[in-house]
Write the structure tokens for this entry.
Amino acid sequence: MKCGDIEIGNILLAPMAGVSEVGFREVCKLAGADLTCTEMVNAVALNHDSAKTKDLLITSSLENVKSVQIFGHDALEMAKAVTNSCLSKFDIIDINFGCPAPKIVNNGDGSALLKDVNKIYKIVSACKNSTNKPISCKFRKGFGAGDNVSKDVARACEDAGASMLTIHGRTRAQMYSGVVDLEAIACVKSVVKIPVIGNGDITDFNSYNKMLSTGVDGVMIGRGALGNPNIFASLKNKAPIDKMELIERHIRVLREFFDERFVSATMRKHLLWYIAGEPNVNKIKLDVATKDLNQAIEIVRSFLSNNG
Ligand SMILES: Cc1cc2nc3c(=O)[nH]c(=O)nc-3n(C[C@H](O)[C@H](O)[C@H](O)COP(=O)(O)O)c2cc1C
């Protein structure tokens, strides 16, 4: 599958703020994710040269195609961000029209834009006009409970020049509750010519096949990959990578780029995901959450090796 002229494959890792940092993206690529994307980056912060924002733009050498996601509500700020030299290494620019977090929505960003399809058109147009790179757009099906503006949003993005769409089949009001609306996703696929990626609740072959039954060109996986980068291997019928090998690689990448404080806080979260669902996990959870990171890693290593 292509985004613009760029071949990207069809099983994608979702952008996840505070989760899909460069180390996690690298292990997901290693396990078979076709395309990964940075977590969302504030266009205004980017335009103001924020150092913290630049950390979000670190990429892995395994990311052969690089995608960055930006958010904001002002078309001019967004278009300016697209031309920022910090984004020059990226091949694809993704725009966030789905984030449900109150602090984002209250600023008129993310899913708040689903209330104004015209504004979405203006933002995508402005971004498209400021770059030759393909623009992709990621959105939810609507804002309020029961809303479904997904067809209008899809058409607006395509008309404004977007090369690919991702739809998460939930409203903002649902946050992450309820089930994903596969019918809405199928409708989006039927009204545009550009590739459509289906997103929401893919955790195994069954949910993957259900998503594919909507006719989408590709799928995007978020929470199903937490602690389980091998979901990509399994959906591609590839041999899984040893979990401890993934963990060690994940930490190594983080240590390459970040200070130990950040690595420790970030990796502890991931370690708890990596061991979730393992038999007798409760015995080590507290230690993993509280001990020094090197000790926590050794606890996980011996736990996984005992579990076979
Ligand atoms: C912790 C977390 C952070 C997220 N951050 C982003 C983000 O930065 N940009 C974005 O477009 N979506 C973000 N999302 C939404 C996911 O990309 C995805 O659309 C959603 O989780 C549904 O897919 P899933 O059921 O496979 O998890 C986030 C989701 C989670 C759980």
Strands lie at 2-3, 6-7, 11-13, 37-42, 67-71, 92-97, 135-142, 164-171, 196-199, 218-221. The mean pLDDT is 97. Residues 243-307 form one domain.
